[in-house]
Amino acid sequence: MDEMKKHCNVNIVANNHTDNNCTKMQDISTWNIDPEASFFYFCTNETVNGFEIGFETFPWHLIPKDMPIICDMSSNIGTLDVPWDKISMAFMGA
Question: What is the pTM of this model?
Fold first, then answer.
């Protein structure tokens, strides 16, 4: 069990819920992306306050080249053009 815990760390890059009530993206200069992470995950849209991360302005250059990018698109799938060449997996739920 201890061996599993050692490999299950979560590095929170930006928490818009606690940092600014989901009204704007945290300044990307404060992001701390672990280059050894297994993947980079982000939610593209927060429904209650209407915050949405635009793919055209997303800081793709900050993500290490070969790191898989996972997107939760539950609130906005089908409403915008998705750069599928940059995203390894997208999911949505109800």
Answer: 0.74
